Four helix bundle protein
Amino acid sequence: MHDFGKLNIWKRSIELVTEIYQLTGHFPESEKFGLTNQIRRCSVSVPSNIAEGTGRKSDKEFVQFLSIAMGSLCELETQLIIGENLNFINEEQKETAVSEINEIQKMIRVFGESLKSNV
């Protein structure tokens, strides 16, 4: 078992959630239950799955939750592209968020590989 609070991938993904909430705070009110909600939910899914994985019995199970977190990051990137296409955010805002998403993905990939070597 791991202590999720000590994992840099968890800390970094928590920071991403905060950034996403601030970014989507400027979305139209009409999107409150649409794209805004969807973006926020999948961003929250990332650190949540990392934390849930730490509570599992084996590293193999943990790797599965890291995989789910990776999927949520891909979903988040897609939704940010949609947000840009709808002019809810500009290209710079999207690129800043996508850059952070890509960094977290790299961190998860490396960490996941280290766990697999322990299996």
Observations:
- The longest helix spans residues 59-85.
- DSSP finds four helices and no strands in the chain.
- The mean pLDDT is 95.
